[in-house]
Design goal:
This protein has 345 residues and is α+β, with helices and mostly antiparallel strands. It contains 4 helices and 23 strands. The strands form 5 sheets. The chain has a 6-stranded antiparallel sheet, with no helix packed on it. A 6-stranded antiparallel barrel has the order 3-12-15-14-13-16. α2 runs antiparallel to α3. It is rod-shaped, with a radius of gyration of 37 Å. The chain starts with a helix and ends with a strand. About 6% of the residues have low confidence.
């Protein structure tokens, strides 16, 4: 066992010595490189998030009372206008309420005439008047309960209770979307569409309502859409430290559908930055950190940088200064301290 340990130690020493010799050789070897001078210029920075598309408005339309769907005037996919009668329900209770209301109206009119002649006390007249007005309110309520009216213009996306079926107030479960619905018709306004993203607290200060955004959707490859920030939630989630931000997108052709995955780029005000070629930037193995080699006399120095924005084949970065030259070719043979020869011609 002792022999094995001694042997392993010898191997490690030899290997270390060889590695140091290789590094020394690499440092001493003159490497031909080409360099580029950082350029200061203005650019439009952006932040990127992923989000999900939602309808601008949606509602599960139902009745305040259970009943039978006597007539369905809507169908799935139909465009309807605000105020349109989408379905009609059974009206037995309404018929009964109208009969009661008519009887109370006759009683009220008769007692009112008697009161004008002094044959009836005002208390009795007020009592029957209250009953009549309550009956009228009941009739109006039941009228609303026998018709399903569109509260806004939109698209019928689902019929939850078919014609001839009974409607109850018990919620139903949509097995396909794993959602709970309580109504007869699901109505959505699909133009404009709203894309919701979760913006972390460090980026919230950079955005405001009215700011422009560019969006792409996995379901619409090759197409780019424009939108504007319409709402920023005033409070943050205590778990994710982010706030919901809504972006309105024109969807006149109904190309976009609720539930689509969106890639959102929010354009920020112009800034000035120091740009270097993308070919100068390397990623440190096993990390998310970037670095470049800069010249220092006739040697190369490795410095860590932060990439801020990419514009075509250039990148705005932090970590280099305008007077430093970055190495754009010959980097594969370099280590920190390598001897270099600049060959830009």
């Amino acid at each position: 066992m002792k022999r094995f340990i001694a042997f392993a130690a010898c191997v490690a020493i030899v290997a270390t010595g060889c590695h140091r010799q290789e590094e020394t050789a690499a440092v001493k070897e003159t490497v031909a490189v080409k360099v580029s001078q950082p350029v200061r210029q203005t650019y439009s920075p952006s932040i990127r998030y992923s989000g999900t598309a939602y309808a601008f408005k949606e509602a599960d339309l139902g009745s305040t009372l259970p009943g039978k769907v006597e007539k369905m005037n809507a169908r799935e996919g139909m465009e309807v206008q605000k105020g349109a009668v989408l379905a009609e329900l059974s009206g037995e209770l309404l018929t009964q309420a109208i009969i009661e209301n008519n009887a109370l109206k006759k009683d009220y009119d008769r007692l009112k005439r008697l009161g004008e002649k002094g044959s009836m006390s005002q208390i009795e007249i007020d009592h029957i008047k209250a009953q009549y007005e309550a009956s009228q309110a009941k009739v109006e309520l039941l009228k609303k309960s026998t018709e399903i009216v569109a509260p806004f213009s939109g698209t019928v996306v689902d019929i939850l209770v078919e014609e001839g079926e009974n409607y109850s107030l018990v919620p139903t479960v949509d097995q396909q979307n794993m959602s709970i619905s309580n109504g007869i018709i699901k109505l959505m306004q699909l133009n404009p569409l709203v894309v919701k993203i979760e913006v972390n607290e460090k980026d919230l200060a950079k955005i405001k309502t009215g700011q422009e955004a560019t969006l792409t959707f996995d379901g619409c490859p090759g197409e780019t859409f424009s939108g504007k920030i319409s709402y920023i939630r005033p409070v943050l989630s205590s778990s994710s430290r982010s706030a919901t931000v809504e972006i309105q997108v024109n969807n006149a052709k109904h190309t976009l559908k609720p539930g689509m995955f969106a890639n959102v780029t929010i354009l920020l005000p112009e800034e000035e930055g120091l740009f270097i070629p993308l070919t100068a930037i390397e990623r440190q193995a096993g990390t998310s950190r970037d670095y470049v080699f800069v010249t220092q006399g006739n040697t190369a120095r490795k410095i860590m940088i932060k990439k801020l924005e990419t514009v075509n084949d250039q990148a705005a970065v932090e970590g280099v200064t305008p007077d430093q030259q970055v190495i754009v070719s010959g980097k594969g043979k370099l280590v920190d301290g390598s001897v270099i020869e600049i060959q830009n011609k």
